[in-house]
Design a protein that fits this description.
CATH topology of the domain at 2-255 in chain B: Amidase signature (AS) enzymes
CATH class of the domain at 2-255 in chain B: Alpha Beta
Structural class of chain B: alpha/beta
Number of helices of chain A: 3
Strand content of chain B: 5-15%
Number of helices of chain B: 16
Shape of chain B: globular
Number of strands of chain B: 11
Helix content of chain B: 25-40%
Helix content of chain A: 25-40%
Low-confidence stretches of chain B: none
Strand content of chain A: under 5%
CATH superfamily of the domain at 2-255 in chain B: Amidase signature (AS) domain
Order of helices and strands of chain B: HHHEHEHEHEHEEHEHEHHHHEHHEEH
Largest interface: A-B, 52 and 68 residues
Shape of chain A: flat
Structural class of chain A: mainly alpha
Radius of gyration of chain A: 23 Å
Largest sheet of chain B: 8 strands, mixed
Oligomer: heterodimer
Radius of gyration of chain B: 21 Å
Distance between the termini of chain B: 17 Å
Mean pLDDT of chain A: 92
Mean pLDDT of chain B: 97
Strand order of the largest sheet of chain A: 1-2
Strand order of the largest sheet of chain B: 4-6-5-10-11-9-7-8
C-alpha cells in the first residue's frame, strides 16, 4: 500500500513532528518502501489467532494504594527547560 | 598497567579478592585506556572522578571484609540507563543535558554489588539502529578492522558502544539492552559475549523506553562466565516494573562448564537464508559439530514463521515507540524549540530533537495505529507474533535449545547500509524472533572470517532457562577457543 505525501503530512501532524513540505514526497517514498516490505504479513493465516500483547504470562500485579515516593518538586523540575516558582512554564494552552 | 585491562571480569574479581591490586588501580588503568581510545567514540560521558571515588569506597569496603560480588570491578553503562546526576541522553539530541534524579534498577543493582562506573556508552538513538550510525553523538567505530584495511567498520547496534568498549578492553564488562538484537548483533560484530535474558528477568525501570513489550537489559562481556556473573547482579524482581518476573535468580556462573551431554539442540532450517555468506554457514556447521562432540543430540526443527518476524517487529516496535516517545514534548525535560503556539512548539521540538531514523519509526508507528489501519497492521502483527511464539513452543517439545548464526554477515563498513532502511533492518533477521517470543538468547564468538573479522553463534533457550544457555555457551567457547583480539590501532 503506497503512502502519499498527504498521508505523511497527516501522520506527521498526529505525531507532532514538523516536516517541511519538500520532505513529504521523499518520506512518502521511503515509508511506502518499508510498508510494502511489511505487506508480506498478509500471507500469514491468522484466522482465530489471539493477538499477543506480552510474552509474560502473568496478571498485572496490584499494590497498596499508598504514596511511595514523591514530595520533591525541586527534583521533578530540575530538568525542565523553563520553570518559575515551583511550576513548569509552558506555552499558552487556552486562547 | 595495561595488563589489568586485559583481565577477564572473573580474574579481576579474584585479583581484587586476594589483594593483588586495588580497585583504584584497576579503575585508573581503565580510565587511562578510555582516554587513549577516543577514536572509537565508545564513551559519550566519562565519569573519572566518580569512578575513582567509587573505587576508593570499594577498597574501603574490601578492607573491612564487606566486599560484594562485583566489588571494585569497573564497568561501562549503556546510555539508555538513567544514572543519577550523570547525563543520560539515549543517543538523542532531544535529551541533551538531561540528568536523571534517579538511578535505574539494573544499575542500582550493580552498585549495590560493588561495581564501579567508568562512564556512559554510545548507542543508536533511542536504541533504534543496527550500526550505531543513528547516534546524535556520531557512530562508534569497531576496534576490529579487516585484514590489511584501514576502513572504519560498524560495531553493530544499538549497543555498539558497549560492544566496542568491551572488545577494546576499556571496561571489564558493560550493560546493554536488546529490543530486536541490540545486544547479540554487536556482540557478534566485536567478538564479545552478549546475552538477552528472558523478558522480565531484568527490570526495565529507569531504562529509557523504546518498545516496552520487547525491551530487555543484559550484559556484554569477554567471556561467557563474565556475562553470567554480570547477569546475576543485574537480574531480579522489581515492584517498579509491572512486567518484572518474581522468580529466584539462579547462580548463572555455576552453569558455565557444566556438561551438556544429552541435551537436544535444534537447528532451525528456516535460518538458512538466501545470500548468507558461506563462511557463516560453515561456522554454523562447525558449531553443530562442536556440540555433537560435547555429547549433544542435534535435531532439525522448523520455525515456519521466521521470515515474518522482522516485518511483524517493524509494526510492533514502531507502534510502541510512537507511544513511548510521545513524552518528549519539550515541556518537562529535554530540548524545547519554541513555536508560535503550543502545537508548533511540540512540532518544532520533536523535528529538531529527533534524528531521521527515530522520526521514520515514529511516523510508521503512528500510521499503523491510526484510524482505519489499526486492525490491518497492528492487530495483524500481534497475531503473527503469536504464531512466532507458537513455533518456538512447538520446538521445545523436541529440543532443549536452538543453535543459529547471530547475524547474517560480519561487521560492515560505516555508511554501507545507511541509505537503505530495509537492508539495515535485515541485520536482525536471526535475533528478532527471540524478542517477539520473550525468550533468552546469547551470542558467543566462534571464529573469524577470511578478512579476520569475528563471527558469532546464537543460542536460544526456553523461558527462564538462561542456565542451559550458559552451559552451552561455555561449551562452544571452549571448543572454539576464541582468543583473537582486535589489533590496537586507536
Amino acid at each position: 500500500m503506497a503512502i502519499d505525501a498527504a498521508t505523511v503530512r497527516k501522520v506527521a501532524r498526529l505525531a507532532r513532528i514538523a516536516e517541511p513540505e519538500e520532505k513529504l514526497e521523499p518520506l512518502a517514498k521511503e515509508l511506502s518502501g518499508i510498508m510494502n516490505w511489511i505487506e508480506q504479513l498478509s500471507e500469514v493465516d491468522t484466522d482465530g489467532v489471539e493477538p499477543m500483547t506480552t510474552s509474560v504470562a502473568m496478571t498485572l500485579p496490584m499494590r497498596e494504594d499508598v504514596v511511595t515516593e514523591g514530595g520533591d518538586p525541586a527534583k521533578v523540575l530540575s530538568n525542565s527547560p523553563k520553570t518559575a516558582k515551583g511550576f513548569f512554564i509552558v506555552p499558552k494552552v487556552v486562547e | 598497567m595495561s595488563e589489568l585491562t586485559g583481565l577477564t571480569l572473573k580474574a579481576a574479581l579474584d585479583g581484587l579478592a586476594d589483594k593483588s591490586f586495588s580497585s583504584e588501580e584497576i579503575t585508573k588503568a581503565h580510565l587511562g585506556a578510555i582516554e587513549a581510545a577516543s577514536a572509537l567514540n565508545a564513551f559519550v560521558v566519562n565519569t573519572p572522578d566518580q569512578a575513582i571515588e567509587m573505587a576508593r569506597a570499594s577498597d574501603a569496603r574490601r578492607a573491612k571484609g564487606e566486599a560484594g560480588p562485583l566489588d571494585g570491578a569497573p564497568l561501562g553503562i549503556k546510555d539508555l540507563f538513567c544514572t543519577e546526576g550523570v547525563e543520560s541522553t539515549a543517543g538523542s539530541m532531544i535529551l541533551r543535558g538531561f540528568k536523571p534524579t534517579y538511578e535505574s534498577t539494573v544499575t542500582s543493582n550493580l552498585w549495590r554489588d560493588g561495581a564501579v562506573m567508568l562512564g556512559k556508552l554510545n548507542m543508536d538513538e533511542f536504541a533504534m539502529g543496527s550500526s550505531n550510525e543513528t547516534s546524535a553523538w556520531g557512530p562508534v567505530v569497531n576496534p576490529w578492522r579487516s585484514n590489511g584495511s584501514n576502513a572504519d567498520l560498524t560495531p553493530g547496534g544499538s549497543s555498539g558502544g558497549s560492544a566496542a568498549a568491551v572488545a577494546a578492553e576499556l571496561c571489564l564488562g558493560a550493560t546493554a539492552t536488546d529490543t530486536g538484537g541490540s545486544i547479540r548483533q554487536p556482540a557478534a560484530f566485536t567478538g564479545t559475549v552478549g546475552i538477552k535474558p528472558t523478558y522480565g528477568r531484568c527490570s526495565r525501570w529507569g531504562i529509557v523506553a523504546f518498545a516496552s513489550s520487547l525491551d530487555q537489559a543484559g550484559p556484554m562481556a569477554r567471556t561467557v562466565e563474565d556475562a553470567a556473573i554480570l547477569l546475576k547482579s543485574m537480574s531480579g524482581h522489581d515492584v517498579k516494573d509491572s512486567t518484572s518476573i518474581d522468580v529466584e535468580v539462579p547462580d548463572f556462573a555455576s552453569f558455565c562448564g557444566k556438561s551438556v551431554k544429552g541435551l537436544r539442540i535444534g537447528v532451525p532450517k528456516e535460518y538458512r537464508v538466501d545470500g548468507m555468506p558461506p563462511e557463516i554457514d560453515a561456522l554454523w556447521e562447525q558449531g553443530i559439530a562442536w556440540l555433537k562432540e560435547a555429547g549433544c543430540e542435534i535435531v532439525e526443527v522448523s520455525l515456519p514463521h521466521t521470515k515474518y518476524a522482522l516485518p511483524a517487529y517493524y509494526i510492533v516496535a514502531p507502534a510502541e515507540a510512537s507511544s513511548n516517545l510521545a513524552r518528549y514534548d519539550g515541556m518537562r525535560y529535554g530540548l524545547r524549540v519554541e513555536g508560535g503556539n503550543l502545537t508548533e512548539t511540540y512540532e518544532n521540538t520533536r523535528a529538531e530533537g529527533f534524528g531521521a531514523e527515530v522520526k521514520r519509526r515514529i511516523l510508521i508507528g503512528t500510521y499503523v495505529l491510526s484510524a482505519g489501519y489499526y486492525d490491518a497492521y497492528y492487530l495483524k502483527a500481534l497475531k503473527v507474533r503469536r504464531r512466532i511464539a507458537d513455533d518456538f513452543d512447538q520446538a521445545w517439545q523436541k529440543v532443549d535449545a536452538l543453535l543459529t548464526p547471530t547475524a547474517p554477515s560480519a561487521a560492515f563498513a560505516l555508511g554501507e547500509k545507511s541509505d537503505d532502511p530495509v537492508a539495515m533492518y535485515l541485520n536482525d533477521i536471526f535475533t528478532v524472533t527471540v524478542n517477539l517470543a520473550g525468550l533468552p538468547g546469547m551470542s558467543v564468538p566462534a571464529g573469524l572470517d577470511a578478512q579476520g573479522l569475528p563471527l558469532g553463534l546464537q543460542l536460544i533457550g526456553r523461558n527462564l532457562d538462561e542456565g542451559t544457555l550458559f552451559s552451552l555457551g561455555s561449551a562452544i567457547e571452549k571448543a572454539a577457543d576464541f582468543r583473537a583480539k582486535p589489533k590496537k590501532w586507536w
